[in-house]
Give the backbone structure.
Amino acid sequence: MLFLTLKEIKSWPLTDEGWHEHPISLCVVRLGDDVKIAKGVRISHGCELADSAQICKGARLYAGVKIGVGAYIAKDTTIHAGVQIGAGSIIGPECRIGVDCVIRDNVRIGRAAILGHSCRIGGNSEIQSKAILFPETRVKNGAYYERGQ
């Protein structure tokens, strides 16, 4: 798995479609305006970070992750391939977000929460710190999900 830093990505030329494209490999990443990426963040191929997204130290974004406008990813969080995170969502530190999860707009996920693969989290929901959601869990819009629920 190829991971990249912001400095590496920004040094690549832009395509006509607005993707940063590595001059040799097939790796491409799209960054919106005013994206903030801390040192030590690793970003893989095909990720898209919308305007004003913030990614904190030690976070890892695997292939094809999409981060919405103004979303915030806290330190040491791992977001696996194909995950979509909606605008204004906040993912707390040390979280693990499984493959192909969809997190809608304005969701809050607390520290060290774990979401199994293919979870669907409705907009304006909150997932408590250290909660564990089994694969394919569905959380309705506006819901509050506690540990052990």
